[in-house]
Amino acid sequence: MSCNPAIGGIAKGQIVREIDALGGRTAIVTDATAIQFRMLNRSKGPAVWSPRAQCDRGKFIWQWRTELDRTPGLDIWQDMATELIVEGGRACGVRTVWGAELRAGCVVITAGTFLGGLMHIGRRKVEGGRIAEPASHGLTESITRHGIRAGRMKTGTPVRIDRRSVHFDEMEAQEGEADFHRFSFMDTARPLPQLPCWTCYTNPAVHEALRTGLADSPLYNGQIKSIGPRYCPSIETKIVTFPDKGQHPLFLEPEGTDTNEMYLNGFSSSLPMDVQINALRHIPALRDAKVYRPGYAIEYDFFDPTQLKHTLESKVIGGLFLAGQVNGTTGYEEAAGQGLVAGANAALLCGGGEPFEMRRDESYIGVLIDDLVTKGVDEPYRMFTSRAEYRILLRQDDADARLTERAYAIGLADRTRYDWWMEKKEVVEGIIDFCKATHVKPAEINPFLENHSTTPLREGCKLIDLVGRPQLSLALLAEALPALKEKINAAPNRNEEIAEAAEIRIKYKGYIEREQMVAEKMHRLEDIKIKGRFNYAELQQLSTEARQKLAAIDPATLAQASRIPGVSPSDINVMLVLLGR
């Protein structure tokens, strides 16, 4: 956890649920080390509900180490790779700074922010992948010499504050939630004590103090030339971009149960350290703040993701897979989703299996990878629910329904996870079938309906029609209908999770079916393979921009071609006509 000691958030939480459904460990480790859990976007529909957990940073590290050490067949070698070995156009291993040579059928590079990492605080620059950890040199050059394009990106992290110096009575507590929701679909628990986060705001005095350091800001004096994440801007970027805004929200978040270190979310900065500390002390609750370390920016190398296949294998070097921030993304969750897909496909390629790819209507991870390889990046890519055109199908509650059976078929998910999902699937479908078949009479239900401020029945109806009412839920109706309660309790350890899954499918049935129809229409274009079938430079019927973009991306299907910026619907129609010929 280089930056924020949290996992999940808007759309990111859905990715973690998908990783879990696929057999990954991120959700299990998060639940084991969570010190606050919340379901975001509760005021909106379930299509955009997003889980987020604050974690104990130290325990998170060691829980992951435990998971790795318990993984059969996994060997760990601690070293720094400095050279990619390529023979006959294929990656076949790496050489390290200590002279080790590791040979492999495939190589997966997940180097984060370490490639050529350069940290900035004011006008000072220090090499490193993050504070107190060295940058990696040599690997980028050994990759780009084979024709892979590289660039530079930037990200940042906020100041860390000693909780003993904070006036919490002048902040607003933000408590977590203690209901049944968690990250993993498996039978996990949250054993650590749950801690609050705290909110406060900047003010004009803070902004004025920050402005005094803009001349020394590496973002504004030309020292940093790379692009940072648009949706996670530094505090100095906020005051320059929104000069008329009098305040910005800040969130003070605990780093763990056994440390006084706290993370000031919203105060990412690379200004000189004295400017950062002076500005902080203009916030009433932080007027006596003691700082562990200031915020800093970091620049690092990334590789153009349009040179990747949907499996995340390089189109230029066979057997080379790239995943995470080296593909131009930001965030642990986006990186973890890519790592899982790259690792799975590397293993499948070594073993002669079929590639593992996910469609845009199948997962947020599928949306993420398709966006990267089709559109490329000109700034660090962050996932949002708005990037997914099928987000009603890609809910956090149904990731196991979408992905677990596919994962089990290729060996990603184990038998225990598969059986756990199949039990849930059977009970959910049993509840839905029961609601479809059960007839409810006015005499048995009207007193209950009146008590819950919803219109009483004049004649009998199917139970499924009552579940569809916004004032009612399956859990409420189970209080009045013992037979329904028995159905819900068929899986007693997770009856609340199962009731919610069934209820969402019932209440949003029309929306889900309509979106499935739209997705099925797009599948027809996904089924039309065009890779290698056109010489785009010769297709004068297409626009000049379309010819250039299609030649550069070389899309696998007509659907992928339709998503390339600069390729218009009329260009797609021309290609359909030519294919017909």
Structure keywords:
three-stranded antiparallel beta sheet; globular; alpha+beta; nine-stranded antiparallel beta sheet; 581 residues
Write the topology of this structure.
Blueprint: E1 6-8, H1 12-21, H2 26-33, E2 34-40, E3 50-55, H3 57-69, E4 81-87, E5 90-96, E6 101-103, E7 107-109, E8 118-121, E9 124-127, H4 139-144, E10 150-162, E11 172-174, E12 197-201, H5 204-211, H6 235-241, E13 249-254, E14 261-268, H7 273-280, E15 291-293, E16 296-303, E17 320-322, H8 332-351, H9 364-375, H10 399-410, H11 415-437, E18 439-440, H12 442-451, E19 461-462, H13 463-467, H14 474-480, H15 482-488, H16 495-507, H17 509-526, H18 544-553, H19 558-562, H20 569-580
Parallel strand pairs: 7-17
Antiparallel strand pairs: 1-3, 2-3, 4-5, 5-6, 8-9, 8-16, 10-14, 10-15, 10-16, 11-12, 12-13, 13-14, 18-19
